[in-house]
Amino acid sequence: MSQFTHSIKVPTQYKATAKILKAAIEKQKSIKSLIFEEKHARVRSLQAVLKHYSDNRGAIDNAIEETGLLKENPNLDSALAKVLVTELIFGRGQLNGESKPVRTVRSYKEKLQQAISGSEQQKKEPNPRYVRINTNLLSVADALDYLYGEEWRRKQLDPDGTYADFLAAIRELEEDEFLMDMHVEGVLIFHHKWSHYWASHEFVHAKKFILQNKATCLAAELLAPPVGSTVLDLCAAPGMKTLHICNVMHNKGRIYAVEQSKERYKALCDITNEAGCQIVTPILGDALTMDATKCPDVEYILVDPSCSGNGMQSRISVCDEQKDDKRLYKLAGLQIKILSHAMSAFPNVKRILYCTCSLWKEENEQVVQRCLQLNPSFKLLSCKKALRNKWQNVGDKEYVQIGKNCLYCLPDYDLTDGIFLAMFEKRPDADNE
Ligand SMILES: C[S@@+](CC[C@H](N)C(=O)[O-])C[C@H]1O[C@@H](n2cnc3c(N)ncnc32)[C@H](O)[C@@H]1O
């Protein structure tokens, strides 16, 4: 009998993940669209490994280099090695099968672990899980009763505590504890270990709880439309902020929610409907065609336009993102158009909140600067002051009179998504000028 044994194949899930990783690194393609194109059935596990790699890229690449894994095994594919190391050290902790690459990486487990624990680029702790109570369907008191009934412990904060104390309390959160956010009413903070638990929780399916990052909740918090007022949300889908504004207004008054994409408009209608919004009028259309005849008596406007989204923590990125100046220029042009339109087409407007999930100044301070030049009847209000000075990160102070009034949420400092916010008020004497 022949002694020849067929080589054992690498499990397809590892091969498919490595293929995506390779394309993302070499061709600078977006992981999201590569996963979407992939026919492989286990998309969730692909996504989980790639997210772990994205979060710990420095530590993993470093450990592969330090242990000589690729140098000593020149036939081992680099992308496959990254996937296997990620799964072994940051994922499931074990690898399937007995293929050569799997056996090779397994034999380096101890060395890899040592390299990672000794490295300065330690595993990045994910940010906490934020859960917002949808007060259209559940009161804060009932939500707390529910949590206590499930044996969650509320971590109490000193009412005179600083923002730094609050961030420390989040970092030290025990797994059975939760915190109430210090800026936004109804935002609950849980240990990141519970992220998946909350994603599939019955209250989330029933829209009593909304999975909404705290940073994005600052938009409605700062806009602060009073109960009974009239609000215009110019870029509304999928409707997370529309719903939050509705909660802030106790579901009384009126919100015009505009969205130009048909599919996203449908999502907006579904979400606001299921979440019990009684005051939202969804409008399918272009923000730039809205005016006081279509949306009368508007007093408060939210402008949350399409942006590069580089502040979003759920994004998977496997190589250093190149700044795409052309794309930013185009996005900023649209952002300026929409914000400037909000400032000029609604005579009764009192306050406008502009936000992006971008950390690029081109979409943030520069948009604010241009719109103030174009619309001198508006001035900036200090977001930091509105948060009782309990905030640290503001805009770039080189933008005089602008930077200090704007707010940044920074993922590593504020433990949130990366968000920029700016708040405008119509000057009281503007109509007489
Ligand atoms: C960042 S998202 C808004 C997220 C939303 N505010 C939320 O919190 O769920 C931007 C949205 O604006 C829409 N949009 C972009 N340009 C628009 C325009 N000119 N008119 C109306 N909607 C627009 C996009 O289709 C997209 O759904």
From TrEMBL:
InterPro entries: MeTrfase_RsmB-F_NOP2_cat (IPR049560), MeTrfase_RsmB-F_NOP2_dom (IPR001678), NSUN5_7_fdxn-like (IPR049561), NSUN5_RCM1_N (IPR048889), RCMT (IPR023267), SAM-dependent_MTases_sf (IPR029063). One of its GO terms (cellular component) is nucleolus. Keywords: Methyltransferase, RNA-binding, S-adenosyl-L-methionine, Transferase. Residues 119-427 form the SAM-dependent MTase RsmB/NOP-type domain. The active site is at residue 357. One of its GO terms (biological process) is rRNA base methylation. CDD domains: AdoMet_MTases (cd02440). One of its GO terms (molecular function) is RNA binding. It comes from the Eukaryota. S-adenosyl-L-methionine binds at residues 259, 286, 304. Belongs to the class I-like SAM-binding methyltransferase superfamily. RsmB/NOP family. This is SAM-dependent MTase RsmB/NOP-type domain-containing protein.
